[in-house]
Amino acid sequence: MASYRGHLMFSSVLGSAYGATGSWFLNLDWGPAMLGAGVATLGGLLPDLDSDSGVPVRELFGLAATIIPLLLLHRLRLLGFSVEQTIVLVALIYLFIRYGVANVFKRYTVHRGMFHSIPGMLIAGLGVYLVYNTSDEVVRWFVAGGVMLGFLSHLVLDELCSVDFMGAKIRLNKFAGSALKFWSPSAVATFFAYLLLFGLGAALWLHYAPPDDPFGPIFVRKLR
User: Fold this and answer.
1) Domain limits for position 202
2) Which of 116, 181, 185, 212 has CB atoms 3.0–4.6 Å from 47's, for a disulfide?
């Protein structure tokens, strides 16, 4: 299994290449390009949120608690909150993620559980897409895709590190097959992961619902 530093180095290089690709091929401004590079780098570390290691987890939750409120800023202003109200809400969101969500992860998740999986990657990507509100759909998908690319790189790197290619015979260690998975040994964890994924997918469908669709609530369309 790759180390925290190894994942950070790999996702940093991948994030830089991703940002350069967005700038070169999609003609993105330096802001969205660097944002995509940054979230791709962070995405390469996200699967370790369920890690048993103390320092990396604290750093990751600190980063997530800082970045997510920033991505929500535009959406909060669209909802009509004043500057002072927005600052208070951003602070509350930070505290909720930094201490509330972090404690839930620490108590109820296991290392290489359902968050360390393909559904976990989709949950992270869809979550970022729905949180980050911008009128430019290309930029929105670029940022969400960066998170998923970084997340996937973590899973692939862990899977490669579980294979011993030395010698004439390929051998697998005890972690083989535990990264690129679609379910876990825990039926409850698998159920809730897919329930969350279904909920995010439904929110994405509502986002693209036509104006005359009776199942597309007005308040959802206003948040676009």
Assistant:
1) 4-222
2) 116
